[in-house]
Amino acid sequence: MPMFAGHLLFLFSALGAINGLFLAIYFFSRRPHRLANSMLGALLLVIAVRTAKSTLYFFNRDLAVEFLQIGLSACLLIGPLTYLYVHYHLVEFRQAVSGHEWRWHLSWPFFVIALGCFFPYSEYRIIWRYSIYGIHAVWFSYLLAAAWQLWRSRAILFDDVAPMSRNTFLLLSVFCSSGVILIAYVTTPLTSYIVGALSFTFSVHITVIAFMLRKEALVDAGKKEKYQNRKLTEDDALKLLASLNQVMHEQQLHLHPNLTLALLAKKTGSLQTTVSQVLNDRLNKSFNLYVNEFRIEDAKKLLLNEPHLNMELVAERCGFNSNSTFFAAFKKITEQTPASYRAASKL
């Protein structure tokens, strides 16, 4: 390889690792603090470590074997972190949550990594070389789990009426990039060892550029919406309320845990600000309360008609993302807990 081409290739590959590190710091410190941002920051960090290892090893085959072990260990975390980012993004789409399932998804990879300390790469090279197949299988399995969650949320994420938000665009880009990087590493025997690092560099830069361009487009759209806003007449407000109720009943939108004000507004051909104004002025309700009332009505029916269902299943079937949110909403609207409501019906 010519010296200039080699330097250029090294620079381009290293940029992915460096930018991944800075982006990880950005998402770790982003406010408001959300689990999805933390998972994305961790994902970018481990991919940056893996990319740095690949780049250094490609240009220096005498690299200490400890670095090879670190790179493989980081690879084990990419799949779980991709899934956790997708999961928490969808959960936090509507409401804040405090989840703990991430501990299990990350605890076992860290256990395997710790186990590797007793079986170092320098002494067990054959085991580590064959372990990459298992690591790729785990990565692929978590991608399938993330794809399933995205598929279940397709009504919101891929709605033809509502424009795709910046966060949703970032979500899909990260998911696709994780898949592209996996393909790059799996096909290394057919291409080159450096392809994985190059694929990360490429995906990071394309995503960031497109993300920023989408931000400008949405800002312009927001300005147009602001100037289009106008005061509703009594008749217009009543018609909009009727339209909202009709859409909610006919399309059962409340059953989707990621329903947003933007989507509901688009379904009725109205502006978000107009829908929010009508709900507050005419019904004295927030968007969350309005939607939760539909969910609680369904929950009441399930609690009475299907006593075999536990509270977690009832919450999930009614569109709630967590038991805590379900209990809080049920208590606020009915002034009873779900369990006491079910028990009272048996008296």
Provide an overview of this structure.
The chain is an all-alpha fold and 347 residues long. It has two domains: 3-222, Rhopdopsin 7-helix transmembrane proteins, CATH 1.20.1070; 229-345, Homeodomain-like (Arc Repressor Mutant, subunit A), CATH 1.10.10.60. 76% of the residues lie in helices and 0% in strands. It contains 15 helices and no strands. It has helices at 3-29, 35-59, 65-91, 102-116, 125-152, 154-157, 166-186, 195-228, 234-251, 261-267, 272-282, 287-305, 311-317, 323-334, 338-345. Helix 1 (3-29) runs antiparallel to helix 2, helix 12 packs across helix 14 (323-334) and helix 12 runs parallel beside helix 15 (338-345). The chain is elongated. It comes from Undibacterium flavidum. The chain crosses the membrane at residues 6-28, 40-59, 71-90, 102-121, 127-148, 169-187, 193-213.
Strand-pairing-aware structural class: mainly alpha
The CATH C-level name of the largest domain is Mainly Alpha
What form results from the Cα inertia axes? elongated
CATH topology of the largest domain: Rhopdopsin 7-helix transmembrane proteins
- Beta-strand percent range: under 5%
Give the strand tally. 0
Largest sheet: none
Residues in helix, %: over 70%
CATH architecture of the largest domain: Up-down Bundle
- The string of secondary-structure elements, in order, is HHHHHHHHHHHHHHH
Straight-line N-to-C gap: 83 Å
User: Average pLDDT, to the nearest integer?
Assistant: 79
**Poorly predicted regions:** 94-98, 216-229
Radius of gyration: 25 Å
CATH superfamily of the largest domain: Rhodopsin 7-helix transmembrane proteins
